[in-house]
Amino acid sequence: MAENRASEYREGTPCWVDAQLPDVAAGKRFYGELFGWTFREQPDLPREGVRALKDGEPVASLRRKADGRLPTVWTVFFATPDAEDLCRRIRLAGGRIIAAPLPLGDLGVHALVTDGQGAVFALWQPGTHPGFGRRHEPGTFAWVQLYTSDTEAANTFYGDLFHDALFGPGAQPDFGRAPVSDVFPAEMPPHFLVHFAVEDVAAAAEEVVRLGGRVQVPPFETSYGTAAVVTDNQGASFALLRR
């Protein structure tokens, strides 16, 4: 798909998603049935990592959590040509570096950071792995929404860091910001919610429940489509989206 070439990923474009799970085999069964994913073992990924494929193209990765005390989560990666420089700018903007840039073989360089309100996200400086092979199709990444305690501060933080991706000529961002209280209890901490495209949100939510997951927020209308918030059978939250 031409739109998914590495050159198309401006800095600040969501380019990959990764789930950290207690049981990768259980994750393969859940997402394989829900989205029709197949899987390829990735010895160059840490902690029993597997690459998820849709129609033979990479769409996500699943990894075993390094520590049982860590959250079971989906993490979004934003593209950058220079992870070291972006980490420097994140610090200056009031964010924090959780894990400094680290090469992952020849695949690329990754880092884990937070914004000024504490929402966690990752950076990806591509090597041989540019990111999604497919997106914006059923069973693939469609959107990421930041639910935050301060949308004005978030818009300033990300608008400065990722201006071209969000506001530049021809920008078609897959990234929105909204108050936590729009969807979740106000006391929930700021966080990113990864959305996967589906043809029928209600039917997909029913399938989540059949597979052992649960529905956190039933289907609702947003400015970018119909969404539902669900968790998988191990507690990782994500959203289903029909645009």
Verbal overview:
With 243 residues, this protein is of the alpha/beta class. It has one domain: 2,3-Dihydroxybiphenyl 1,2-Dioxygenase, domain 1. 20% of the residues lie in helices and 40% in strands. It contains five helices and 14 strands. It has helices at 24-35, 83-92, 151-161, 163-167, 201-210; strands spanning 14-21, 38-41, 50-54, 57-64, 73-79, 96-104, 108-114, 120-126, 141-148, 175-179, 191-197, 214-222, 225-231, 237-242. The strands form two sheets. An eight-stranded mixed β-sheet has the order 2-3-4-1-5-8-7-6, covered by helices on one side. A six-stranded mixed β-sheet has the order 10-9-11-14-13-12. Strand 3 and strand 4 (57-64) form a beta hairpin. The radius of gyration is 17 Å and the shape is globular. The relative contact order is 0.17. The model is unreliable at 1-7 (pLDDT under 50).
How is the topology of this model organized?
Layout (H helix, E strand, L loop, with lengths): L13 E8 L2 H12 L2 E4 L8 E5 L2 E8 L8 E7 L3 H10 L3 E9 L3 E7 L5 E7 L14 E8 L2 H11 L1 H5 L7 E5 L11 E7 L3 H10 L3 E9 L2 E7 L5 E6 L1
Strand order across the largest sheet: 2-3-4-1-5-8-7-6
What is the level 1 CATH name?
Alpha Beta
Query: Overall mean pLDDT score?
Result: 93
> What is the C-alpha radius of gyration, as a whole number of Å?
17 Å
For the largest beta-sheet, the strand count, sense and barrel status come to: 8 strands, mixed
Strand content: 35-45%
Total number of domains: 1
Tell me the CATH superfamily: 2,3-Dihydroxybiphenyl 1,2-Dioxygenase, domain 1
Shape: globular
Q: Which series of helices and strands comes N to C?
A: EHEEEEHEEEEHHEEHEEE
Structural class: alpha/beta
Ends: how far apart?
19 Å
CATH names the topology as 2,3-Dihydroxybiphenyl 1,2-Dioxygenase, domain 1
Low confidence ranges: 1-7
Q: Count the helices. How many?
A: 5
CATH architecture: Roll
Q: Give the proportion of residues in helices.
A: 10-25%
